[in-house]
Amino acid sequence: MNGIQVGDTTRDVSTVAFAVDACREVFLRASEAGAEVLFVHHGLFWGAPIPVTGYFFERMRCLIENDLALYAVHLPLDKHPELGNNASMAETLGLEKIEPFGTYKGTAIGCKGSLPAPVLLDRIIETLFTHTDETLGVLRFGPSEITSVGIVSGGAAFEVAEAIADGLDLYITGDASHTIYHQAMESGINVVFGGHYMTETWGVRRTADRLARETGLKTVYVDLPTGF
User: How does pLDDT run across 3-49, given as a tens digit for each residue?
Assistant: First the structure.
């Protein structure tokens, strides 16, 4: 359910908080920052209805009691060609000849491209994730110098098959997977598991910057990493 999930749509807005996940701690921090709206990548509703009880009830109560609206954008924020998680990482790496990549239910969510000159794998990791220790894991089964990269943020380990089919040197995604280890090794491709959270901060932050620049609204980013 992309768009407004909870909140008064008639309320005036001066401050918008941004975060990856819709959870009670994020709601409290956004409210403390004076936000009237919270923009998240992972919202509260995922298709099938669930009872408003337990932790879910407490989340709803927190939003309502703090008069905090919730706006969620999931896959559209992964795939957006300017503001998206994948486009943002591709631009940060300086990829050229960028094309759609990573097909999910008939739609390319990620992107792929080439580097203007070969870059060491560790340098790419440092550029996106600061240090190898900040990632969930790195499979060094391809060339040490990278010229082609495919990126799909979040939980997309199995899309490594598309990266292999395209002959890419490196595939970057969020979640780690034991299942693709031998497939990657036998195919000679590097894989970086950057972490679901870490690969999905990019679009949220970029959208916050765009909103502040174009509307003059105050924006705040609520950073609550999960380690995964």
Answer: 999 999 999 999 999 999 999 999 999 999 999 999 999 999 998 88
Angle formed at CA 91 by CA 216 and CA 190, multiple of 5 degrees: 140
Please name each of the domains of the chain with its CATH number: 3-73+201-221 (3.40.1390.30), 78-194 (3.40.1390.30)
pLDDT tens digits, one per residue of 160-188: 999 999 999 999 999 999 999 999 999 99
Q: How far is it, in rounded angstroms, from Cα 161 to Cα 104?
A: 13
Beta-carbon neighbour count of residue 39 at 10 Å?
Answer: 24
How confident is the model over 134-153, as a mean pLDDT? 97
Phi and psi at residue 202, to the nearest 5°? -60, -50
User: What are the Cα distances from residue 184, in Å, to 42, 44, 106, 161?
Assistant: 29, 34, 23, 8
* Ramachandran region, residue 121 (left: φ > 0; alpha: ψ -120 to 50; beta: rest): alpha
pTM of the model: 0.95
**In degrees, to the nearest 5, what angle opens at C-alpha 94 toward C-alphas 218 and 212?**
10
What angle in degrees, to the nearest 10, is found between the helix axes of 85-93 and 202-215? 90
Q: How far apart, in whole angstroms, are the C-alpha atoms of residue 79 and residue 202? A: 12
Q: Compute the distance between CA of residue 159 and CA of residue 8 in angstroms, rounded to an integer.
A: 39
**Number of helices followed by number of strands (H, E) in the chain:** 9, 11
